[in-house]
């Protein structure tokens, strides 16, 4: 009778202190890491690595704030902020970067406005993979 409007409500995701997670995360929500993460993260939101957080990961996001440690390659469509307690070891492709006094960045940085298209292409590729997997499951079930 009434059309239901299907809206995704982005909820923040938290990896708490004392938690270790390994794998891939694909989300539209913001992500906060206070524990430890190993793998790959893609989000259309913001990633915050807290002061005690450790990420050994490749990250794709809109905004990245590092107060803990990140080891890996990051693609940031917007702003990368490294706070006084933050450490980034790896390659960064960003639109803008702020390294506050005391913050540490060891690696290579490329500033580009093309990051958006790279993030969109990556997201589309992952969406295509999910579609193919769903179709394969449907064929197996039916």
From TrEMBL:
Stored InterPro entries: BacA/B
Highest taxon of the lineage: Bacteria
Pfam families: Bactofilin
Regions of compositional bias (Basic and acidic residues) in chain numbering: 125-142
Region (Disordered): 121-142
Family as reported in the entry's similarity comment: Belongs to the bactofilin family.
Protein name per Swiss-Prot or TrEMBL: Polymer-forming cytoskeletal protein
Organism lineage string: Bacteria, Bacillati, Bacillota, Bacilli, Bacillales
């Amino acid at each position: 009778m009434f059309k239901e409007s299907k809206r995704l409500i982005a909820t923040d995701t938290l990896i708490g202190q004392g938690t270790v997670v390994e794998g891939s995360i694909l989300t539209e929500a913001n992500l906060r890491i206070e524990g430890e993460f190993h793998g790959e993260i893609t989000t259309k939101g913001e990633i915050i690595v807290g002061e005690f957080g450790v990420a050994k990961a490749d990250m794709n996001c809109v905004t990245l704030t590092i107060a803990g440690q990140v080891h890996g390659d990051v693609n940031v469509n917007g702003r990368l902020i490294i706070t006084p307690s933050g450490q980034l070891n790896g390659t960064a492709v960003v639109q803008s970067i702020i390294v506050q006094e005391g913050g540490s960045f060891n690696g290579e940085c490329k500033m580009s406005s093309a990051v958006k298209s790279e993030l969109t292409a990556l997201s589309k590729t992952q969406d295509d993979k999910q579609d193919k997997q769903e179709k394969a499951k449907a064929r197996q079930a039916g």
